Amino acid sequence: MSFSTETKNELARILPDNVNVATSELSGIIKLSGTIQIVGLNKVNIKITTELNSIARKVFKLLKNTLNITTNISVNKNQALKRNNSYVLTITDEMGSIELLKTLGMIENREGFYPVNTVPQNLLFVGEGQGENVDLSEQILSENIIKKKNFSGNELNEKELDKKNKSFGDNEVEEECQNDESIKISENYKSPINYLGESRKAYIRGAFLGSGSISSPNKSYHMEFVTNSEHYANSLKELINSMGFNSKVVPRKNNYIVYLKESEQISDLLSIIGAHNALLNLQNAKVLKEMRNNVNRIVNCETANLSKIVNASVKQIEDINYIQNKIGISKLPNNLQQVAIARLEYEEMSLKELGEILDPPIGKSGVNHRLRKISEIANRLRESDVEKSI
């Protein structure tokens, strides 16, 4: 399982306890993973497609418990390409698809069909003097938008689902969703608690579940949201950056990508949207990567130093042997003789180690100075030989 899938599965387990927050998350998911199908005059169906059954379950629960819409889940198997199954949730016009789109801020709340190709404005802008205390409940929960209906006639037929996909490890997804009372959304719509900040986080979380991905931290640091509109991509970037980030937009084929590259910013965004396990895994990978890089750096440095020592030692021994063959080491001053003999005997030693075995011991710079003198003498002897040969 990829790191991106693990992160999405973790986020899919988060179920908001406030209707404003839940609606914002639904808006992000449907905006980036949903499609609108026109079925007649002012009639549309909404199809939400995902490759993860955990996301399909979450959308089902949010629709049912937030907006009282009971949809159905179908499974499409792609055997030709051997890819994962895809799970499709369909919201028909009879279920209130138009009202849902208005609720989610995806079309304008007026007669006709006028798409909104931005993040919902109530998440981007706050009125003067309102600060973080904006109450979105009247806008989201007006009676003409939320209809208390029972859509049990559209329940998932488990036998049909089983026929379509016997390997669908969650055959009882919808039954589980309908019977799970632990995830009921609180109906305290007029709570004085501020939910605007949470709604913004929830929208980003929904956008990530809809079309986001994150690279394995063992390879690179990259988190992105794939959109099909430059205008919407800039709007999503504005929402993310309003929380202190530095996301950017780049075109890729027919899409526009909102992305983050820095590990610290990715960590902060994972924390904000609630992916705490993914955050810990990223931090662990980052620490291991830094340790590995530090070890490699030290090894490379040591290797370079050893190479330098070996190359210098070879040149010094060559000079000493040349002097020995031409005039003999005994012709050198005593201090140079001592260093020359020590170098011939301990070829692998560094200058510091060589100085420590002399009597009396001398420092690294002293040894280097004497070896340089020996090299000068060897070079003069070579020049003399050249002149004689001419």
List the topology elements:
Blueprint: H1 3-12, H2 19-33, E1 34-40, E2 43-50, H3 53-67, E3 72-76, E4 86-91, H4 97-103, H5 121-124, H6 137-140, H7 158-164, H8 173-179, H9 196-211, E5 212-214, E6 223-227, H10 230-241, E7 248-252, E8 255-260, H11 263-273, H12 276-326, H13 334-345, H14 351-356, H15 364-389
Antiparallel strand pairs: 1-2, 2-4, 3-4, 5-6, 6-8, 7-8
Q: What's the pLDDT, averaged over the residues?
A: 80
CATH class of the largest domain: Alpha Beta
- Give me the CATH architecture of the largest domain, please: Roll
- Count all strands and give the number: 8
Low-confidence stretches: 126-178, 180-193
Commentary on this structure:
With 390 residues, this protein is an alpha+beta fold. It folds into two domains: 3-193, Roll (Endonuclease I-creI), CATH 3.10.28; 301-389, no CATH class. It is built from 15 helices and eight strands. The chain has helices at 3-12, 19-33, 53-67, 97-103, 121-124, 137-140, 158-164, 173-179, 196-211, 230-241, 263-273, 276-326, 334-345, 351-356, 364-389; strands at residues 34-40, 43-50, 72-76, 86-91, 212-214, 223-227, 248-252, 255-260. The strands form two sheets. Strands 1-2-4-3 form a four-stranded antiparallel sheet. Strand 1 and strand 2 form a beta hairpin. Helix 2 (19-33) packs across helix 3 (53-67), helix 3 runs parallel beside helix 8 and helix 11 (263-273) packs antiparallel against helix 12 (276-326). The longest helix has 51 residues, at 276-326. It starts with a helix and ends with a helix. 32% of the residues are buried. Mean pLDDT is 80; it is low at 126-178 and 180-193.
